[in-house]
Fold this sequence. Notes:
Radius of gyration: 17 Å
Number of strands: 10
Strand content: 5-15%
CATH superfamily: Glycoside hydrolase/deacetylase
Number of domains: 1
Structural class: alpha/beta
Distance between the termini: 20 Å
Number of helices: 10
Mean pLDDT: 95
Order of helices and strands: EHEHHEHEHEEEEHHEHHEH
CATH class: Alpha Beta
Largest sheet: 5 strands, parallel
Helix content: 25-40%
CATH topology: TIM Barrel
Amino acid sequence: MKPTNAMTVDVEDYFQVSAFESHIPRNEWDLWPQRVEENTQRILDLFEQKNVKATFFTLGWVAERYPQLVREIVQRGHELACHGYSHVRVTEQSPEEFRQDVSLAKKILEDVSGVEVTGYRAASYSIGRNNLWALKILENLGFRYSSSIYPVKHDLYGMPDAPRFAFHPEVAPGLLEVPISTLPLGRRNLPCGGGGFFRLYPYWFSRWAMRRINGEGRPAVFYFHPWEVDPGQPRPTGLKPRTRLRHYLNLKKMEDRVRRLLEDFRWDTMTNVFLEGANAD
């Protein structure tokens, strides 16, 4: 039987991405057209059509403004998980600031949904070699797993020497860290678990890469954002060419590619795949 893979969605709006921080300050977020609710509904409907359950890593900021959306995620049988409060990278926080941010987001999500939240993903995969202390804080706050370390070399994030597959970190042995999927290519790991790379590669390549991971007997971990299925989103001015390319590349193709992915592989939530199913290293 083919391995069941983990489908995940990072629930944030287009203006909340880290690359837009210098263009859209957090105190101006409420001034921009809000599109996260409608786009997440589209994803929920798509998952229902394909009979797929997923994990939704949701910002506390979003949950405060759209509590019914959060409740609907749970009511439709998906897993609700934490993405922090307002998408602040862990590299920009002290340990106490991080603890307060995650505690606040976890409380909001649990109060709104009525379910326990035990999964976490850092903004922009911003846990790495220099701030592994964050994993111990997550463990102390009652999280069972994190998906915050990306074992790649990248200009914005990454811990290239981290394990490719789920592992228990030495600093927090009671926590399971589940990296986004990669394939080894020479001395580097090639990102193949979603986001901008999924929009960059032709679909056949992403399918081939995930089949390779499944061929190792391992589940893949895939992620995307609601704004990635929204080519009509407002566009801030003054963006650098690289930022524009990364954010807007192939948005028109994204929904169809996700639909094909749902059809070509077996999917479930992070908890069902990694805590109730496959064993970690």
